[in-house]
Amino acid sequence: MNPKSANVGIVIVSHSPLVAEGAADMVRQMVGDCVPLAWSGGNAEGGLGTHAAGILAAIERAWSDAGVAVFVDLGGAETNSEMAIEMLGEPRSGRVIICNAPLVEGAVMAAAEASGGAVLARVVATAQELSP
Amino acid sequence: MVVLANAALIGGLIEVCREAIAANADHLSELDRAIGDGDHGINMRRGLEAVYAERSRLAELALPKALEEIGFTLVMSVGGAAGPLYGTLLIAIGRQLDGANGQHDFARALEHAIDAVARRGRASPGDKTLLDVLYPVHAEVVRRAGLAGISEQAERAARLTFGMRAMRGRAAFLGDRSIGHVDPGAKSCALMTAAICRFLEEQCPA
User: Fold this and answer.
1) Is A51 a catalytic site residue?
2) Can you say whether the dihedral through the CA atoms of B165, B171, B176, B178 is positive or negative?
3) Strand A37-41's sheet: what is its strand order?
4) What is the pTM of this model?
5) ipTM of the complex
6) Residue A5 in contact with residue A64, Cβ under 8 Å?
7) Which residue among A46, A64, B34, B167 sits deepest, i.e. has the most Cβ atoms within 10 Å of its Cβ?
């Protein structure tokens, strides 16, 4: 089995493609390649915004049977992420959680936790400790 | 009420909604520039064009299934907050009608779907969103108002968002500065409601 798929995946969603890619790049450099990681940023035309299709594709890229933790910036990112998760369908949708945590710090902390093989609930809780 | 053949009904609904959005896309983006991120018209046009491109396939489906599929297409193509909200509305209406074993109660399905939109957007009436058009439209449907009455109510409800303070979405960041602008989502909703009512009225005059 691919060792990569044993760890929880991380998805970063921002209105800005540059922010999403930059945050993912930071996670990769700090945590390495042992965590499935993907990002979705911008609308369907590459401008500022978020879209469910892009987020759905990112979740597929970062898919792990251990689950996926999603990090979002502003409101629409969360709404579109919820929609994308619903479109994944059961039972996989039950293994994706949107974290109430800051985008960059949350993703880095979650990835660090995930790289040690922690379960999804543990990864999410670690990221959410950052929120007051 | 509707005596149209299914395919003509679905094709017609798609066409009039696409026209209503295309003709008003610039205006919708202008409204959105005042209190949002300025792309509501562009996003909605992209979504309705995507639906229009698939109209012959969609027109072959039973109405509940077609509504569900149109909802999915809107989710995948509109983006922003409007994609999930309009998508949720149509998917929920379709599923509710589909599960009704032929006992179609449109008012009930609409109510269920509007509640799903409210949950999706975590919004309530008065928050200056498309819900401020959907709830009054539902009330008109429940009291069996005529099509012209439903259409008028939708437009009036959209105008009323002018005085509201936005509580959800990008506009909420503006606080009191959001007052004095019509909500773009409420406007697009009223435009499509009016277009649908006009179409149905032309097809089956009382």
Assistant:
1) no
2) negative
3) A37-41, A9-14, A68-72, A96-98
4) 0.90
5) 0.81
6) yes
7) A64
Of B72, B79, B121, the CB nearest to A50: B79
H/E stretch holding A40: strand A37-41
Q: Rounded to whole angstroms, how far apart are CA atoms B146 and B48?
A: 26
- Taking the CA atoms of residue B125, residue B198, residue B149 and residue B154 in that order, the dihedral angle to the nearest 10 degrees is 20
Residues of chain B neighbouring A46 (CB-CB closer than 8 A):
none
Say how many CB pairs under 8 Å bridge A and B.
Answer: 62
β strands within A57-103, DSSP E: 68-72, 96-98
Catalytic member of A7, A12, A13, A15:
A15
* A53 has a chain B CB within 8 A of its CB: yes
In this structure, are residues B44 and B28 in contact, taking their beta carbons and an 8 Å threshold? yes
Give the closest residue to A114 by CA, choosing from A70, A77, A58. A70
- Cα–Cα distance, A8 to A64 (Å, whole number): 6
Hey, what are A72's tokens? 């979002």
Entry field: residues in chain B: 206
CA dihedral (B187, B192, B196, B199) in degrees, to 10, reads 100
**Chain B contact for A82, CB < 8 A?**
yes
If we measure between CA atoms, which residue out of A91, A112, A87, A90 comes closest to residue A101? A112
Cβ separation of B84 and A49 shorter than 8 Å? no
Q: What is the pLDDT of residue B4?
A: 63
Read off the pLDDT of residues B129-181 as tens digits, 9 standing for 90 and up. 999 999 999 999 999 999 999 999 999 999 999 999 999 888 888 999 999 99
What pLDDT digit, counting tens, does each position of A58-83 carry? 999 999 999 999 999 987 899 999 99
Contact check, Cβ <8 Å, A43/B79: yes
